[in-house]
Hints:
There is one protein chain. With 259 residues, the chain is mostly helical. The protein has one domain. The chain is 75% helix and 0% strand. Helix 7 packs antiparallel against helix 8. The longest helix has 29 residues. The model has no long low-confidence stretch (mean pLDDT 84).
Amino acid sequence: METFLLFLAVGFLAQAVDGSLGMAYGVISSSVLLAFGVPPATASASVHGAEVFTTAASAGSHAWHRNIDWKMLAPLAIAGVIGGCLGAYVLAGLDSDIIKPFVIAYLALMGVWILWRAAHDVKPKPIRPRWIVAPLGALGGFLDAIGGGGWGPTVSSTLVGAGQEPRRAIGTVNTAEFFVTVAVSATFVWSLVSGHWEEADALQNHAAAVGGLVVGGLLAAPFAGLIAKRVPQRPMTYAVGGLLIVLAAFQGVQLSGVL
Length: 259
């Protein structure tokens, strides 16, 4: 019960941040699981299993509050599904630490760029043509599955940095994440059944943690769309940029072995 309540709190906090700023659920949840000694592949599968439920609730909230660019959603989600499935399949044989330094540097640079845009009050502009976001979706899905950076930090940050209105970027990315998460989770299950993933048996040892992440995330997810809609554009841009720099610093410390 203590494990369940701990991860309920983690899931609530992580989803509150992710739903309103478009990133951090995976980073926060995975980091706590890894700190408890959960193997990386098992941590990724656990988080994606929980996200199937939390991203559905978050997407519903963003749809209700009209935070979604529907024409951008399709190319982003389809490409994200393809990248995510590929990442989930190769996870067992790929060392994500090789990719992480490059992702961390990218997130830090995007954070600085977004803060600069907020400081100079650069007005958002729609991304055209919308299909141009497809390669970004594929990269974000792949990194999300292998744990190298995450869907939200990679995709949300790039869209905001490119000038997309923050609430539209966050709402669209959160909604596309549902489809990516379902696909990645299905790939994990297939890898488990086919024997491709040798660490799959460890999942049953962390049921309480996954349950806590699901319940905590579901409690916070309905507020996601409202927060993204109500917070003014400039403070939201500052918040996204600041969170990116914090995430990049945190992952850098993790990679150095200090944590």
